[in-house]
Amino acid sequence: MIPFPRFFLLFIPVGLFFLAFNAPRAQAQTRLLAATPTIDRLAKPTVPANPSQADLGAQDYWLYCSPCHGDQAQGLTDDFRRQYPPEDQNCWKSGCHGRRPYPNGWTISTPVPALVGPGALMKFSDAASVFAYMRVAMPFQKPGSLDDDTYWRITAFVMRQNGYRQDSAPLDAANAPAATIPRSATPPAAMPTPAAPAPPAQSFASADWFAAGAFFALLLLIIFLIRRSGTKS
Predict the structure, then answer these.
(1) Within its chain, how far is the Cα of 28 from the centroid?
(2) Range of the domain at 164
(3) 83 domain residue, yes or no
(4) Residue 207 belongs to a domain
(5) Residue 210 lies in a domain
């Protein structure tokens, strides 16, 4: 039996060195990923110290509109429904908001349209018509149940998010007809909504050296034990 070269034993501590050197870095990255904040898309939006009509409308929208129209007014999309607990994600099932809703419940339309985005408000001519429609038809389960100030705030918010109107004078019956929605093939870009911060990319060197060191040390240890066992036999 050819004796096992002793200098190969040096590779075991080398492999263990890579493990020891990279373990703290890997643990630090794990802690960093765990501490990365995520945005609760179902949480009530905050407003600045001196909120505009549209800023306040964002909170009204969250309370009265977002459960059906989405947190970004994108409609009742699959992505948005996944923000709810699993038992509440199928809005159209029987006993919820489907064909046979629970007592005093209602059936949700299919689909629930977006209020922000390309073509979202194209059936309306101006802010006055948006307000008039919401006032008689929304909220879906109890149309006309909000006061006029609330409807105006939501209208201002939706117009701003679509890029049709900035925060200037508050919307009202006098100036809303002048806040028109252009008849164009490409509506203006919607106001950006803050996105959840992307988690930091894991270091390629740290992850790979950690795995390689562990594999290398284990492989050499196995070879050593096999050779040693063969020598004794």
Answers:
(1) 25
(2) 117-189
(3) yes
(4) no
(5) no
Tokens 């607990």, residue? 85
The tens digit of pLDDT for each residue in 69-124 reads: 999 999 888 888 888 888 777 776 756 677 766 777 777 777 888 999 988 999 99
Structure token digits, residue 120: 């979202």
Give the dihedral of Cα atoms 50, 56, 59, 63; nearest 10 deg.
150
Residue 42 lies in a domain: no
Task: Give the separation between CA 33 and CA 43, rounded to whole angstroms.
Answer: 22
Q: Within 13 Å, how many C-alpha atoms sit on residue 44's CB side?
A: 8
pLDDT tens for each residue of 32-78: 555 556 778 878 888 899 999 999 999 999 999 998 899 999 988 88
Domain count, the chain: 3
Q: Do residues 2 and 16 share a domain?
A: yes
Residues forming a β-bridge with 180: 126
